Amino acid sequence: MSDVVLSLANAGRTYPGTPPVESLRGVDLTVRAGELVAVVGPSGSGKTTLLNLAAGLDRPTTGSVRLAGQAVENLSDRRLSGLRAYALGVVFQQFFLMDHLSSVDNVANGLLYRGVPADERRRAAAAALDRVGLAHRAGHPAGKLSGGERQRVAIARALVGWPALILADEPTGNLDSVSGAQILALLRDLHSDGVTLLVITHDATVAEACPRRVDLRDGRIVADTGWTE
Ligand SMILES: Nc1ncnc2c1ncn2[C@@H]1O[C@H](COP(=O)(O)OP(=O)(O)OP(=O)(O)O)[C@@H](O)[C@H]1O
Ligand SMILES: [Mg+2]
């Protein structure tokens, strides 16, 4: 059996309020190394909450979240940051690139929290940019790239340290259909290379292209096609 990269056991997240919002309830999910998993569900079903828990950006109010073998709820903020720096790459819908920095410097920033020397960061960043087909835009300020190119830079930044898991929140959500198809092809290509990916998506084409699909409704998993390899 392959290594488990991410597991949620009875994981829940309730936001305080009157009444409190049970954004995620009793979720059990195991992702193994090498999987490409799509998480789908209507607006408000808990997709981003799930991503935030998986990314260690938020902590569960019930149950447990294990990332690369470590229970995030038991780690101090400092140790959690360390774990995230080594185990995780995240691709956000809004890219979150620094527009004035070049593509290669944006990607190199993906290694900032590992304490890697600058010249090594740049070398790794150049290789990651090449991997996503953007070597020819290495010196371009990120703010001058097209939407599809910006998303490639964001993927390269998530990929640059070869983390155990890449999480992506609506990676095609802000793109036209041609750029979206190219990003989907890239994600599938990374999957064939053995990269582990969890992709949150509203896009049926993206979900259909993933070997495994998990459906969320009202904070619960209502369907999971399961592990296929
Ligand atoms: N910080 C918060 N405080 C209170 N309620 C929240 C908070 N974050 C999310 N929620 C609520 O939790 C539920 C799930 O939110 P979440 O953002 O996970 O949904 P989603 O599936 O990502 O939706 P979308 O597709 O619209 O992005 C929603 O009802 C939302 O209003
Ligand atoms: Mg969301």
TrEMBL record:
Q: Which UniProt keywords apply?
A: ATP-binding, Nucleotide-binding, Transport
Tell me the ranges covered by the ABC transporter domain, including all copies: 6-229
Keyword Transport appears in the UniProt entry: yes
**What Gene Ontology terms describe what this protein does at the molecular function level?**
ATP binding; ATP hydrolysis activity; transmembrane transporter activity
Q: Name one Pfam family in it.
A: ABC_tran
Q: Does the keyword Nucleotide-binding apply?
A: yes
Q: Which CDD domains match?
A: ABC_MJ0796_LolCDE_FtsE (cd03255)
Record GO cellular component, one term: membrane protein complex
The name this protein goes by in its record: Peptide ABC transporter ATP-binding protein
Task: Name the source organism.
Answer: Acrocarpospora macrocephala
